[in-house]
Design goal:
Two copies of one chain form a homodimer. Chain A has 309 residues and is an alpha+beta fold. Chain A has helices at 2-12, 55-72, 92-108, 158-167, 183-188, 201-212, 227-233, 237-243, 259-265, and strands spanning 17-19, 26-29, 34-43, 76-86, 112-120, 125-133, 149-153, 193-196, 215-219, 250-254, 273-280, 286-289. In chain A, the strands form two sheets. Chain A has a six-stranded mixed sheet, with helices on one face. A six-stranded mixed sheet of chain A has the order 8-10-7-11-9-12. In chain A, helix 2 (55-72) packs parallel to helix 3. The radius of gyration of chain A is 19 Å and the shape is globular. The model of chain A is unreliable at 301-309 (pLDDT under 50).
Amino acid sequence: MRSLLRELARGGGDARVIVGPGDDAAVVRAGRRPVVLTTDTLVEGTHFRAGWWSPAALGERAFRINASDVAAMGARPTFALLAIEAPGTTAVADLDALVRGFARAACRAGAVLVGGNLAAGPHLAVTVALLGTVSGRVATRAGARVGDGVYVTGALGASGAAVRARAAGRRVRMPAVPDRGAAGPRLAAVASAMIDVSDGLLQDLGHVCRASGVGAVIEAVRVPVAAACRRAQGAHAPLFAATSGEDYELLLTVPPRRAGALSRIAPQLGCRLTRIGTIVAGRPTVRLVDARGRTVPSPHGGFDHFRRG
Amino acid sequence: MRSLLRELARGGGDARVIVGPGDDAAVVRAGRRPVVLTTDTLVEGTHFRAGWWSPAALGERAFRINASDVAAMGARPTFALLAIEAPGTTAVADLDALVRGFARAACRAGAVLVGGNLAAGPHLAVTVALLGTVSGRVATRAGARVGDGVYVTGALGASGAAVRARAAGRRVRMPAVPDRGAAGPRLAAVASAMIDVSDGLLQDLGHVCRASGVGAVIEAVRVPVAAACRRAQGAHAPLFAATSGEDYELLLTVPPRRAGALSRIAPQLGCRLTRIGTIVAGRPTVRLVDARGRTVPSPHGGFDHFRRG
């Protein structure tokens, strides 16, 4: 679908569109400042199972995964629309809790829920449309250059480890989507490219490499691994953390000349920031290497499954 | 859900929100001109059955039902997001046709499809988020005053008659959603209140009456009935047309002092415009009357089933 959308956007060539389909969010001209637009759906049975989250936590999650796309563009969320599809048997209290959880998360992020729709359907699905505004630089996937450092916020692998534990029948707590709403615009000021880690670090860095026409080398030992992932995966933790999805951290590239500015920004991010590799010349692939520079074979390394369309 | 959204909006009191939840669309401050935001979902099995529309026609319909909400606010559509949920077995050609049908309808209306999402799910569901801009007056449901005339564009009942024929096993053509994109902003210049007819004339006028704190009297003989509805329903056609849904015509109230301006606008609308009744004082209910002024009993008259949330 992304390739079709890109094709349609090329055909259109609309002067109002600054960044068209194919990035974390679209950027359009709709006033003085550029407006960012994104949409994402959580479908029961596809993206989550019943009981993984309370209705309120699911509402919060639906907001945060869209806010993550907005943050990855360097924007701040402003207005949200919430479309819910639910079986007729769903308790009204559960729907109310979902909407309130969503609205609270929006409010904490400085955004407001302005509209919604409720439709009957065979299962629960939550589709969000989120607007944001950019007051500084827009970060896209397409600006990484050879020699840029590759950085990631927070730690990776907690979400994947929890999903795997659930699949094995253990009732572990599902981690919340981190709030990188403040970090996004700050990092966009120095980033040459940015994306959120939704499909997995190596896959999402692959998107950046293809959009920018560069390669990347990631040092496995530098990948920040979430504690729960390290406990569950042991020696496999770095590879697991680099390939499992839904961590919603920010992944960015920064030119060497802005490394100083980045160090000044880092303490204000409210989260860890780790340099994990470097942008290199060559084919747009991502190579994960061990401490001695040997390639770590990875099931996902640098390939795009288009599994999220 | 609308009542919950209204409650949340009241609690928020956000200065950026001009019109909050509970109208056809929200209106927010996001630049020089007010921006209109709306979302709506078409769910297979709830809003349509497989085979009612080709994928391209379904895409066009998904755009048009959202554009109808934008038109009812007096706005023009600008940017669209398209979130599709579909079974993994769906043919890629069908998804492509749906997206192209949507994009073509958007383009014809002066809008552009800027982003989307494709998620696996047990059935087909299409959720649209649509932005619009207002260059003139914003029309809400809340401005109708005693003595205002009640008007409707086009003709009613074709959609309901087709759904009924399909239910009876006849393969009639499903009518397309009319394009009232040009009429909406023109009518907003003179309307005291406006809404689109999605739930049925009497129900939707009931929404206007409650939001405005007025009543309404509609003359059954004046209700413009679609030819297909008249053929199928005979003597029952006016009541059927006044209570069946999904016609997506514009329903508006106009103060007597603007009747002259309305007659000058009418020839530019590209569709019929019919005066069907009058706003009256009293409880916020809608009374359908026959040629002798007697109340026509109606299963839906003036009551809101909240069946669309």
